[in-house]
Amino acid sequence: MNKQIIKLFAFIVVLFGVLVGFTSYWSVFDAKALKEQNANKRPLFEQQQVHRGRILTADGTVIAVSKPEGHGANLRYERHYPQGSLFGHPIGYSFMEYGDSEFEQYHNAELVGEESEFSSILDELTGRNREGNDIVTNLDTEAQRVALSELQAAGFGAVVAIEPSTGAIKVMTSNAPYDPNRYPTESKKLNLNKAETPMVNRATQGLKPPGSTFKVVTAAAGLEDGVITPETAFDAPSPLDVEGVPLENDFNESFSGISLDFALTNSVNTWFAQLGEKLGQDKLFSMMEKFGFNSTPPIDLPTDQVNASGVYEEGKTLGRNAAVDVGRVAIGQERLLATPLQMAMVAAAIANGGKLMKPQIWNRVIDPDGRTVKHLDPSQYSQPVSAKTAAELTTAMEGVVREGTGTRAAIPGIQVAGKTGTAETPGNEVCGGGEDENQAWFMGFAPAEDPKIAIVATVECTPEFGGDVAAPIFARVAETLLNGE
Fold first, then answer.
1. How far apart are CA 204 and CA 303, in angstroms?
2. How far apart are CA 104 and CA 89, in angstroms?
3. DSSP secondary structure letter of residue 28
4. Intra-chain end-to-end CA distance of the chain, in Å
5. Cα-Cα-Cα-Cα dihedral sign, residues 352, 357, 361, 362
6. What is the pLDDT of residue 118?
7. pLDDT (0 to 100) of residue 433
8. Cβ-proximal residues to 339 (8 Å cutoff; 6+ apart), any chain
9. pTM exceeding 0.85
10. Are strands 438-446 and 94-95 parallel, antiparallel or unpaired?
11. CA distances (Å), origin 478, targets 170, 299, 413, 448, 454
12. For 435-482, what is each residue's pLDDT tens digit?
């Protein structure tokens, strides 16, 4: 054969291979990236023709369902949310004109039966109508209802409940809520509501000063690094000079020779500020990072709808080499901001013997034939502290509820471990700019001796303290979950 013909043939083969390669990349391998572009509406039109799978709670309550509208070539499926605003967060919405959000967005591939582009192409070739999979979540309907009701009575805020041994999210609610059914007709109004910010999932996006709940992280660092033992005692005068600025305890009370249990039970600021300074920034930030601070929590929600917790400056978290007042970071002040999800992860790790499990909303995926095709396999995210340290922290946290600032979190017949927090937020424009507004917190777990649930409750814009307004919410949600077993 003529050499020129052979070369031409080889050249054509190479060009054909390049063409196939690029076509495959664009249509198959890079299809996910193309679909994530807001300007690319074609996938949304296609998905409206697919019977999107249902989303259900752990007890089978339907959260989201698609209903057919029209006939023949005009057949479309419209998303409906039977529970209204109860699960607006964290489930989100899915509509052709507006895209999707939160859980609906993260699990879109399973819900439309499109986990693989190759299977989608096969469906088209065989003429089979694609049908989505159902997803059963870990969410508890009654506990979610109780949490939202309690929040609405108390003020804006959030509740997160995690099963410590698995990371299963049992409750995630945010007040103010929104009804996803109304999003297509009220999207502009909802997004422009700056007073209530209903489109913000406060559980995962609400960065607030954690106040004294963070003292548990400081104590964890001190115990793990051997800076203190549960018996280590030192004075906690008030006021105390910290970084050139006086720091006071509640009622300006001074203490002599107190150890961890007393300091945590009575939330003694100057004791923990001194511990923070003894630890130093590197050790404290290292412990924070083990609990998940400075990273986006590994939950099954879009990363742009989940905020990282940490010490913030100009919208970014600061690293361990930044200039910070470590004594005030140690008591949950300075520029430290945390989401309820992050603080729930702290509580869950201590409850689980020091092991932090990856928090997940989903539990299993069921195909159109009723078969479970995927099931949550709990996985460990990190181990912030040893089992010994977790046990020592639990003992101290039991004292908070038994005789300290968190007595209103007590549950009859059940031992509770927890920590209150009250961060002063005067002048907060969201709250109206007043001088008596706090960010009130309670985080804890129960039963303390064999933890089944870890819960964080927080209320913003309140004149009350964490032990007064957030602790009772914890107790009501915990009772609901524990009694439902």
1. 10
2. 11
3. I
4. 80
5. negative
6. 47
7. 58
8. 203, 204, 205, 206, 207, 208, 297, 306, 307, 309
9. yes
10. unpaired
11. 11, 22, 13, 12, 8
12. 678 999 999 999 999 999 999 999 999 999 999 999 999 999 999 999
- Amino acid present at 53: G
Taking only the tens place, the pLDDT of each residue in 171-183 is: 999 999 999 999 9
- Residue for token pair 């032990």: 467
Residue 128's identity, in one-letter code, is R
Residues 6+ apart with CB under 8 A from 383: 290, 349, 354, 355, 356
Phi, psi of 70 (to 5 degrees): 85, 180
Look-up: residue for tokens 């582009």? 117
Strands (E), 224-376: 234-236, 240-242, 245-247, 255-258, 310-313, 316-317, 336-337, 356-357, 362-366, 372-375
- 248 contacts: CB under 8 Å, gap ≥ 6: 238, 239, 240, 269, 270
Count of beta carbons in the 10 Å neighbourhood of residue 372? 13
Nearest to 419 by CA among 119, 218, 198: 218
For residue 179, how far is the Cα from the chain centroid?
A: 20
Q: Is the pLDDT of residue 381 over 80?
A: yes
Structure tokens at 329: 């970071």
Radius of gyration of the chain (CA): 26
Contacts 24+ apart (CB under 8 A), 82-85: 83/141, 84/179, 84/181, 85/148, 85/177, 85/178, 85/179, 85/180
Phi, psi (degrees; rounded to nearest 5) at 421 = -155, 135
CB count in 10 Å sphere of residue 406: 30
Distance CA 327, CA 308 (A): 22
Q: Report d(CA 366, CA 375) in Å as an integer.
A: 9
Instruction: Using DSSP bridges, classify how beta strands 55-56 and 134-137 pair: parallel, antiparallel or unpaired.
Output: parallel
